[in-house]
């Protein structure tokens, strides 16, 4: 006769273990210490003979009242099973035996598989992807910060192959709501790149970002467009009247007078400058393309830096961090200043280079000079070396005229 739940629940321990048989190989072993263990007896062929084995299914429990489906799943994963659940486990084990598979071996393999999938979480793959990038440490740190703030709390601990488009959509919507569309789009691009690595290393088969890639509304901000000459003048006047940190204002002016990248200006070091020769030599490790770049300095920049040297010359960086003077200021300070001035969303520091390129091309300067000034490196290394020397004098004249025009536009009324 099959077991009843009452028999299982009321079975008392004895001096020696004993069995309560349910049928089809399933029985409940009651041990002297009170533990009631589900066992499944089966036979598998071993060559010409059949070998009897016992599969430990789990322990008998009574399901708690009010148990949720999630709680029940956790309990079963802990191998604590009711009578009906033990019978279901027996049926699954029997189907394996029919296929010639030992249920104990199959469970061990499944455990190894689950452990492997747990080890390949999205966070693990993301950090591997980030380590492969040939980026500056500051760039990697910023991207990791975004991952930790926006993405990891949602899907970081999930196996990368278990992540669905619905999970991605939740990340994107939350990012757009809490951090804005630009951050959400950065998160989208980053996640897609991470899944590309996961697919290439056989840890995922599809990119769940792709189906929802157009779910976000388009970013309507125009902060990367080139500014008009009137807007340049107004921006420079607004910055002059900002009243913020002197180092931030000087770094911002240096960026405009040289068309350098925001982080290149913010993290500039005194050892890179030869003010007598009016040159700024940025080492390869600080450049996006990992190639040394020489910037000619207009007289306005030289005069500004000569005055600044009396203020920050004792530090390694031209623009030391406000709190930790041994470190450089962060380029995010530019954005903070622009937001205070009401320029946030209309202009970003990166648009400085777009503006400079547009205006200098309009003025008829050589495209080669402009591209060299912007450190848009050519592939031909011989030509690069030749052009650096050839164009430096031309670029110096161009950037002096650019700095003069900045002064002129700043003085003009809109």
Automatic annotation (TrEMBL):
InterPro entries: CB (IPR044068), DNA_brk_join_enz (IPR011010), Integrase-like_cat_sf (IPR013762), Integrase_catalytic (IPR002104), Integrase_DNA-bd_sf (IPR038488), Integrase_DNA_bind_dom (IPR025166), Integrase_recombinase_N (IPR010998), Phage_int_M (IPR053876). Residues 120-199 form the Core-binding (CB) domain. Keywords: DNA integration, DNA recombination, DNA-binding. It comes from the Bacteria. PROSITE patterns: CB (PS51900), TYR_RECOMBINASE (PS51898). One of its GO terms (biological process) is DNA integration. Residues 222-399 form the Tyr recombinase domain. GO terms for molecular function: DNA binding. Belongs to the 'phage' integrase family. This is Integrase.
């Amino acid at each position: 006769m099959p077991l009843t739940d009452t028999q299982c629940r009321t079975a008392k321990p004895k001096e020696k273990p004993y069995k309560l048989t349910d049928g089809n190989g399933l029985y409940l072993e009651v041990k002297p210490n009170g533990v009631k263990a589900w066992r499944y007896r089966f036979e598998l062929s071993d060559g010409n003979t059949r070998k009897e084995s016992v599969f430990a299914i789990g322990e008998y429990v009574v399901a708690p009242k009010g148990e949720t489906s999630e709680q029940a799943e956790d309990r079963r994963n802990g191998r604590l099973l009711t009578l009906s659940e033990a019978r279901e486990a027996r049926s699954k084990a029997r189907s394996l035996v029919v296929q010639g598979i030992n249920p104990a071996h199959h469970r061990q393999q499944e455990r190894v598989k689950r452990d492997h999938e747990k080890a390949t979480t999205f966070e693990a793959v993301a950090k591997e992807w980030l380590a492969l990038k040939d980026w500056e440490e500051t760039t990697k740190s910023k991207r990791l910060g975004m991952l930790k703030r926006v993405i990891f709390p949602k899907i970081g601990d999930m196996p990368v192959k278990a992540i669905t488009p619905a999970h991605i959509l939740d990340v994107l919507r939350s990012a757009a709501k809490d951090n804005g569309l630009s951050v959400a789009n950065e998160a989208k691009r980053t996640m897609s790149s991470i899944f590309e690595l996961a697919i290439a290393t056989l840890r995922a088969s599809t990119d769940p970002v792709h189906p929802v890639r157009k779910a976000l509304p388009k970013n309507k901000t125009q902060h990367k467009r080139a500014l008009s000459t009137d807007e340049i003048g107004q921006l420079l006047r607004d910055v002059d009247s900002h009243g913020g940190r002197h180092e931030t204002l000087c770094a911002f002016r240096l960026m405009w007078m040289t068309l350098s990248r925001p982080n290149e200006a913010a993290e500039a070091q005194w050892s890179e400058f030869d003010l007598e020769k009016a040159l700024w030599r940025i080492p390869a490790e600080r450049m996006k393309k990992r190639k040394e770049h020489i910037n000619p300095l207009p007289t306005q920049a030289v005069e500004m830096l000569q005055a600044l040297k009396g203020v920050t010359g004792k530090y390694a960086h031209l623009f030391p961090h406000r709190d930790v003077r041994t470190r450089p200021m962060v380029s995010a300070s530019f954005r903070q200043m622009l937001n205070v001035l009401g320029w946030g969303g209309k202009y970003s520091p990166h648009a400085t280079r777009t503006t400079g390129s547009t205006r200098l091309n309009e003025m008829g300067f050589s495209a080669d000079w402009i591209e060299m000034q912007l450190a848009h490196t050519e592939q031909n290394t011989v030509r690069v070396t030749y052009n650096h020397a050839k164009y430096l004098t031309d670029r110096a004249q161009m950037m002096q005229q650019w700095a003069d025009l900045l002064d002129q536009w700043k003085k003009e009324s809109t």
